[in-house]
TrEMBL record:
Protein name as catalogued: Glycosyl transferase family 1 domain-containing protein
Lineage: Bacteria, Candidatus Gottesmaniibacteriota
Domain Glycosyl transferase family: 202-341
InterPro entries: Glyco_trans_1, Glyco_trans_4-like_N, Glycosyltransferase_grp1
Domain Glycosyltransferase subfamily 4-like N-terminal as annotated: residue spans: 13-185
MF terms in GO: glycosyltransferase activity
Protein species of origin: Candidatus Gottesmanbacteria bacterium RIFCSPLOWO2_01_FULL_43_11b
Pfam families xref list: Glyco_transf_4, Glycos_transf_1
Domain of life according to the entry: Bacteria
Length: 361
């Protein structure tokens, strides 16, 4: 069975890229097709030894750094330029770049692992934009929504990364989907690694620093309550966030996996703040290290965090939720056991079983 993997882009290394990495472990000989990659980026460092095949757009100067967003209307031309007719199965890892509905696939079966329908097309909060950018997005979005819907109808089978995403697939595409939760590294429990300096004394955010992630409310809480807060991640909103941060807030930027695991293990609580998260792998990663979560009561967070057992939810007053959390106790074992339900081994078994049941013949 010849399999091709297709992914939006290789730039940041986030949850979608962790899913792609697990897929490439299942099918190590499968080439990875992508619109473009950024040399030296965290994602490229993880996949540079793989058989990565880029589109013609990758070779346009500046496309991978600045032009891919304003030129997003080229998505159909990018994906339709690849010839997938020599494969039995095409597995797309799809979110914002409409990575699905491939035209040149012959008799190949197309399976779309959907992280979410493109947020920018369906009214979900994205990064802050200028007035001109918003107007441009409205005009382009009108035509791209039609293309996105048509592309979704050409997919043979959908897999959703959460029940939240499955409901969006049903709403926007009128398609059913199978929920297979993304893979979490449950073997992250470190053995023989010193946690000196990470003794449950701080709150932790691991996130892209962009407006939809709501990191600002964590900073304002830390400023008001004089609580230590560590923030891992970079993004377009980082300079503004640093400007409003008080003395108890520490920005760590990008960190390696081992350091990230230490940070998870040493946190008093992990803060999950997005209001419409598709699934949210970072809260589960925190629970895998025995750390409870304070999460917004919505989106995919409600599928992983157990109220009162592995964390608490908030709806409006985040500071009140933190004060409530300070008076509660959580068992490390409960958090770890909950995270095991989302293990990489489980993901591989479920995805392999699903693909095998759909293969030609």
């Amino acid at each position: 069975m010849k399999i091709a993997l297709v992914h939006d882009q290789l730039a940041e290394f986030g949850g979608a890229e962790r899913v792609l990495l697990a897929m490439s472990e299942i099918w190590p000989d499968a080439p990875i097709y992508t619109a473009f990659y950024n040399p030296g980026s965290p994602a490229w460092e993880r996949f540079k030894d793989k058989d990565v095949r880029v589109s013609w757009a990758h070779h346009i100067p500046g496309f991978s750094t600045k032009l891919h967003s304003p030129l997003r209307f080229l998505a159909s031309a990018i994906w339709n330029s690849f010839d997938f007719s020599g494969y039995d199965v095409i597995i797309g890892s799809s979110s914002w770049y409409i990575t699905k509905g491939f035209a040149k696939k012959g008799k190949a079966i197309e399976i779309c692992y959907c992280h979410t329908p493109p947020r920018w097309l369906y009214g979900y909060t994205t990064s802050k934009q200028s007035i001109l950018a918003k107007i441009y997005g409205i005009i382009v979005g009108f035509f791209m929504r039609h293309y996105d819907y048509d592309a979704a109808q050409r997919v043979d089978y959908f897999i959703a990364n959460s029940k939240e995403t499955a409901s969006r697939i049903k709403k926007f595409y009128r398609r059913d989907s199978k929920v297979i939760y993304p893979p979490i590294e449950n073997q992250m429990q470190l053995q023989g690694v010193s946690l000196k300096g990470y003794l449950k004394g701080y709150y932790l955010v691991v996130s892209r620093l962009a407006q939809p992630k709501n990191v600002e409310i964590a900073i304002r809480m830390a400023n008001k309550e004089k609580l230590p807060l560590k923030i891992v991640g970079t993004g377009p909103d980082q300079e503004r966030l640093k400007a409003i941060a008080g003395k108890t807030v520490e920005f760590l930027g990008h960190v390696g996996d081992e350091e990230l695991h230490r940070l998870y293990a040493g946190a008093k609580a992990f803060l999950a703040l997005s209001m419409d998260e598709d699934f949210g792998m970072t809260p589960v990663e925190a629970m895998a290290m025995g750390t409870p979560v304070i999460a917004y009561a919505g989106g995919g967070y409600t599928e992983s965090v157990i109220e009162g057992k592995t964390g608490i939810f908030f709806k409006q007053n985040f500071t009140s939720a933190v004060r409530k959390f300070e008076k509660m106790k959580f068992r490390t074992e409960d958090c770890i056991n909950q995270a095991k339900k989302f293990s990489k081994e489980r993901f591989k078994k479920e995805l392999t079983r699903f693909v095998s049941s759909k293969q030609p013949g």
